[in-house]
Amino acid sequence: MANRTSIYIILVLFFLVTGRVNVVAEVFVKKDNVGENQISPQIEWLEVYRWVASDTNVPDRQDVLMLIRYHFGNFERLEKLLRYLDGGKPYAYITQHILPRICKWQATQEPLSVIGLPLLAGTLPTVEIEPKSIVPATVIVEKKEERSSSKTVLALKNNLLYDLALAPNIEIELPIGRRWSLNAEYKCPWWLNSRRSFCYQLLSGGLEMRCWLGNRRNRNRLTGHFLGVYAEGGRYDFQFGGEDGYQGKYYGAAGLTYGYSRQLARHLAIEFSLGVGYLTTEYRKYSLYEGDLIWKTSNQYNFIGPTKAKISLVWLITGRR
Q1: How do the pLDDT tens digits run along the chain, 321 residues long?
Q2: How many Å apart are CA 218 and CA 202, to the nearest integer?
Q3: How far is it, in rounded angstroms, from Cα 168 to Cα 188?
C-alpha cells in the first residue's frame, strides 16, 4: 500500500513539473517571436552608422557620421537634419542603398537563445563618442543655419576707375534667384570751364544681365565668377585745353563681359570686370572762335574691342529669408 502511494505521488509531481516547463517554454517562444519582429531604433541607427562609415560613396559622409554621433537618441531630429543636409542627397542615398542592406543583414541573422531569450551576439558595432568629435558637428550645423538666415537682396556699387577719371557713377544690381542678376549703371561727369575752353560732359546709362558660374548652393549671392551681356548708350561733349571739341549726338555699345566678385566682409565686396563688344557713335567736330562754336565736320566712328573696365566697391544689402 505504501509503495503504491509513493508511486502516485511521484507521478503527480512528474506531471506538475513537465506541465510547468511547457508553459514556461510557450511564454518564451512568444517573446522570441515578438523580439524578432521588432528592431529597436538604436540598433538600426548603429547599423546605419557602421555602413556609412564603410561606404566611401555616401555624399557628405563625414558630416553624416558627425550628425549621427551628436544626435544619437533623438532620432526624429536626426532624420530632419539628414533631410536638410546638402539638399537631402545623403538621406536619399541612405534610403536607397544603406537601409536595404540593413534589412538583408537582419534577415540573415540567427538569434542565440539563452533560456528562451533571443540575443544578437557579435552583431552590434562598438561606437565610442568622444567629447571632441561633438564640437565640429555643432559648428557645421550652426554655420548652415547662419548662412540660411539671410540673403543678399540688393547691391550698390561705385566704379573706382571712373572716380579716377572724375566721372561720378553709381550701379545697382538686383539678384534674380541664385544664378542670375540684373545690373544697372549710370555716370554723369558734368564739368565746364569756358574761360579755359574745357568741357567734360557725359550722360550715360546701361543694363547688364549676368549669369553667376559654379555651385551656387555654397556661395552667397553676387559673389564669384560671372558672364554677362550688356548694352549702354548716351551723349557727350569733350574739349580739352583749347583744342578741337567733339560733341556726340549719341553713342551706343553692346557686348559680353567677364568678371569676378570677392566678398571682403559681411556687407562689403570688390568686383573686377572687363567688357568687350561693338561701339558706334555719331559726332560733330567744333572749335571756339571769339566765344562762339564753329562747326567743322560731322562723322561716325565704329569700334570693336574693349569698351569698358571696372574695379568697383560693392555694398551688399541683406534681408531675412
Answers
A1: 555 666 656 655 555 545 544 444 444 444 444 444 556 777 888 888 888 888 888 888 888 888 888 888 888 888 888 888 888 888 888 888 888 877 776 666 555 444 444 444 454 455 454 544 444 444 444 444 444 457 899 999 999 999 999 999 999 999 998 899 999 999 999 898 877 888 899 999 999 999 999 988 888 899 999 999 999 999 999 988 767 899 999 999 999 999 999 999 999 999 999 999 999 999 999 887 766 777 888 999 999 999 999 999 999 999 876
A2: 41
A3: 6
CA–CA dist 224, 220 (Å, integer): 9
Do 202 and 187 touch, CB atoms closer than 8 A? yes
pLDDT confidence of residue 148 = 46
Q: Three-class SS string for the chain?
A: CHHHHHHHHHHHHHHHHHHHHHHHHHHHHHHHHHHHHCCCHHHHHHHHHHHHHHCCCCCCHHHHHHHHHHCCCCHHHHHHHHHHHHHHHHHHHHHHHHHHHHHHHHHHCCCEEECCEEECCCCCCCCCCCHHHHHHHHHHHHHHHHHHHEEEEEEEEEEHHHHHCCCCEEEEEEEECCCEEEEEEEECCEEEECCCCEEEEEEEEEEEEEEECCCHHHCCCCCEEEEEEEEEEEEEEEECCCCCEEEEEEEEEEEEEEEEEEEEECCEEEEEEEEEEEEEEEEEEEEEECCEEEEEEEEEEEEEEEEEEEEEEEEEEEEEC
Residue among 190, 188, 191, 192 at smallest CA distance from 170: 188
Distance CA 125, CA 106 (A): 14
Q: Provide the residue type at 258 as one letter.
A: Y
**Can you tell me the distance from the alpha carbon of 78 to that of 244, in angstroms, rounded to the nearest whole number?**
76
Alpha carbon distance 231, 257 (integer Å): 11
Q: How far apart are alpha carbons 182 and 154 in whole angstroms?
A: 10
